[in-house]
């Protein structure tokens, strides 16, 4: 696709949702639709290998950062091999059981270099990653949520739940989420990337524990409001048990705007087969001054996941080979 100017994109999120958007955007880097790609990753995980390493070494949880790096590996032999290596989880019955190679590599470089951003850049160079991976903040964060109806006998009682895993798996209705500390030190490189980007992609993913947390880092939230980039919000394919049970697509947007009412959205991207009330979604998107893009972006295997190739095609259609600045 011919372009008049270079384009850069920043994708924000965490876990499998960010993995999907980065895997799609990586294709746009490969075919030269994008020149620069940066991932900004949620860092509040307290479970699994990440939680164990965080507890033992006092570091940022490396798991979502590792997944983002794996998503940016190329489709050649080098990229596929390293993606498999960093994603490999140890089996066995000893203390190493459940740890992931990439998590250990990242934490080892953090110890050696003392600089989380520089260390992630070195891992990216080793993997041949087609983009840069940055944490949304450089200080450890815990997540809390006000949850209604945790106790079956008290459906209206609001309880505070602490920990990303606990919030993501709560049996109640999430009323609001917060970070502890409430104003974590942002990654300045992430803020700069958002401010200088042509496109910013937010979502898909666990809405309250992977997507919305970016809006709770004050400097990063302000950058998302102030940037002249076109902001693309990618909606989930289905409600998520624990976080968003019973949510319609427009409810996800409402939750987003509760945390950042001054957010300026360029496009809302949703799977055409997952939207049961297109008129309601179109009305909600229009009230936000955004455009709605309904496309076939779901996998064909029946799983609730985005197809990377279809998602890449949708991104390319939205971005259109023209920068969002000045639109």
TrEMBL record:
InterPro entries: CofD (IPR002882), CofD-like_dom_sf (IPR038136), Gluconeogen_factor (IPR010119)
Protein name: Putative gluconeogenesis factor
Cytoplasm listed as a keyword: yes
One matching Pfam family: CofD
Entry-linked Gene3D superfamilies: CofD-like domains (3.40.50.10680)
Keywords, in A-Z order: Cytoplasm
Family membership: Belongs to the gluconeogenesis factor family.
A molecular function GO annotation: LPPG:FO 2-phospho-L-lactate transferase activity
Its biological purpose: Required for morphogenesis under gluconeogenic growth conditions.
One GO process term, biological-process aspect: regulation of cell shape
Database matches in PANTHER family: GLUCONEOGENESIS FACTOR-RELATED, UNCHARACTERIZED PROTEIN YVCK-RELATED
Subcellular localization: Cytoplasm
Any single Gene Ontology cellular-component annotation: cytoplasm
């Amino acid at each position: 696709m011919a372009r008049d100017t270079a384009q850069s994109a920043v994708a924000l999120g965490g876990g499998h949702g960010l993995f999907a958007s980065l895997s799609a955007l990586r294709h746009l880097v490969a075919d030269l639709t994008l020149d620069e790609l940066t991932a900004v990753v949620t860092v509040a995980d307290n479970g699994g290998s990440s939680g164990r390493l965080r507890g033992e070494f006092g570091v940022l949880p490396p798991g979502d950062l590792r997944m983002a790096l794996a998503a940016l590996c190329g489709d050649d032999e080098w990229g596929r091999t390293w993606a498999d290596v960093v994603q490999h989880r140890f089996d066995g019955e000893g203390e190493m059981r459940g740890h992931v190679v990439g998590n250990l590599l990242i934490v080892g470089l953090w110890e050696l270099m003392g600089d989380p951003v520089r260390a992630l850049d070195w891992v990216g160079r080793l993997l041949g990653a087609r983009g840069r991976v940055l944490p949304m903040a450089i200080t450890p964060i815990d997540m809390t949520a006000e949850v209604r109806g945790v106790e079956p006998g008290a459906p209206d009682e609001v309880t505070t739940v602490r920990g990303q895993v606990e919030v993501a798996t709560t049996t109640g209705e999430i009323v609001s989420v917060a970070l502890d500390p409430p104003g974590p030190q942002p990654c300045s490189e992430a803020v700069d990337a958002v401010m200088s980007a042509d496109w910013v992609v937010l979502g898909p993913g666990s809405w309250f524990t992977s997507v919305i947390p970016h809006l709770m880092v004050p400097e990063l939230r302000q950058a998302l409001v102030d940037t002249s980039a076109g902001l693309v919000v990618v909606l989930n394919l289905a409600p998520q048990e624990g976080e968003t049970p019973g949510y319609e697509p427009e409810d996800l947007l409402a939750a987003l705007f509760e945390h950042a009412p001054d957010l300026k959205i360029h496009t809302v991207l949703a799977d055409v087969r997952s939207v049961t009330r297109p008129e309601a979604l179109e009305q909600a998107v229009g009230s936000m001054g955004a455009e709605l893009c309904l496309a076939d972006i779901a996998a064909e295997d029946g799983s609730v996941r985005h197809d990377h190739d279809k998602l890449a095609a949708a991104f390319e259609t939205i971005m259109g080979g023209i920068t969002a600045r000045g639109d």
